[in-house]
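Changelog note: in this version the structure field was regenerated for every chain. One regenerated record is shown below for reference.
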Amino acid sequence: MPTILVIEDDSAIRRGVCDALRFSGYEVLEAAEGLSGMEQAQKARFELMLLDLVLPNHNGFEILRALREHRPGTPVIILSARGEEADRVKGLQLGADDYVVKPFSVRELLARVEAVLRRSPERPRPVHLVDFPGGVADLERRELRFSEGSRTELSERECRLIEYLATHRGRAVSREELLRRVWRIEPRHTETRTIDMHVANLRSKLRDTGSDPKFLLTVRGQGYMLTLP
């Protein structure tokens, strides 16, 4: 079942929503305020976010904006007492998939969750294992496992790089896109050469070096791409 991240500062509402989701079979992550919510939104693995707008430290709009920068395909349902049209419009313009105004029934919420997940099958799913010639990249354990039994550790940045390329496998991803989506910085602030250096190090760990890489390809004038399985 999908994992759902619930960011809600009202403990009673959060507990009720989380209990209902777990009872329905979903895996649930939760955050009670904006700081931990922002961190989980950018680092945790989940398929749907339920997001309150009024939160301590970071409000829901800030978290939604950051999520869209980091993980543009992840669906979001806003949960808020703010029923004003301006807030609904702003949330939808920032990329929310649905908007539920408090108070709401558990039955309605679960129906909306199911509807959003149902119409989002084309969205990239979190990647945990990535096959490559001669082994598998385990992004949960942050390691490469080779068929002969050896292992090589991966850094968090290398895991995120593999994950992003694997999510868009078969498509050339530009250096600028990688800086924005994986490094979360604007290309004008950093030389794109840093991408080339990380790719070279990753190829070395993957044993995919030489003049003719088989897995992590350079597409001239476009960027980098993982070969299709």
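Spot check on this record: The first helix runs from residue 11 to 23. The two ends are 25 Å apart (CA to CA).
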